[in-house]
Amino acid sequence: MDQDIVLYRTRDGRPRTVHPYCPRLGAHLGAGGTVHGQNLVCPFHRFAFAPDGTCVSTPVGPPPRTRLHHHTLSERNGFVFAWYEPDGAPPTWEVPDTAQAGVVPTAAWSTEVHTYAQEIIENTLDHRHLPVLHHVAVRELDPPTTHGPLLRMRLRLGPDRAPVLKRKIQADHAFLMAGLGYLRVELPLPSLGLVSCLWAMHTPTGPRRTHMLVATACADIRAPDGTGASPPRRGLHRAFAGGILRTAVSKVRQDLRMWNTKRYEPRPRLAASDEAIGCFRRWARQFYPAP
User: Fold this and answer.
1) Region of 158 on the Ramachandran plot (φ > 0 left; ψ -120 to 50 alpha; else beta)
2) Predicted model pTM
3) pLDDT tens profile 173-191
């Protein structure tokens, strides 16, 4: 959101994130700051700040009555999420865990996109572009349904195949959006005993600037936390996740040509079969400050 934050872990392993400037004379805590035990130490005058943000020590004399401002954090599936609200209000919802506990990404890729976070995640609802740009056949299994900050849907995706293969190989993807910065896609593969997860995270970094992260994981359907998986099986998980990531990135690169040059249409002229986009636009309004 066009602001720096400083992210660190204390000795007990808990992540914390603070506004970046020391209240003494404004030194940037991310430019040489260190963590000593539970405290974050300023690189300029070595003021130390406790996990709650309170200044607890200085090299000379008692600490002043001052503190750092924190963002609220949560961790899900190996990701750290920082809550942002323009007026500083506390979180009103959480990013949900995956159905498979213990699944964390083993492959990741990121890029900078010259567009808004909403444009990137809205792309998922634009079914018409899939066969045109990506040469992917699509069938809507469950239309988009919304519940507060969450939007879910199921699509059957895949390249055009011969009829016999279509009956045997069905790629039914379950999509979950949480806010405008989180997309998770789960793909069960019962014939292989596997389930794959793909995450696409969109962090607004400035006006019409978004950092996009794509990450993937794979696990056994019956033991998704890896319990009892042999080394060869874990190697299969990592290889499969890497293959999914390469495929996803190839599609994202095709989208980047569109995202980096298109404009946002606030009143799009939609076709009769574009109900999903209208549903998404209505749902997305809740994530912007009024008016």
Assistant:
1) left
2) 0.88
3) 999 999 999 999 999 888 8
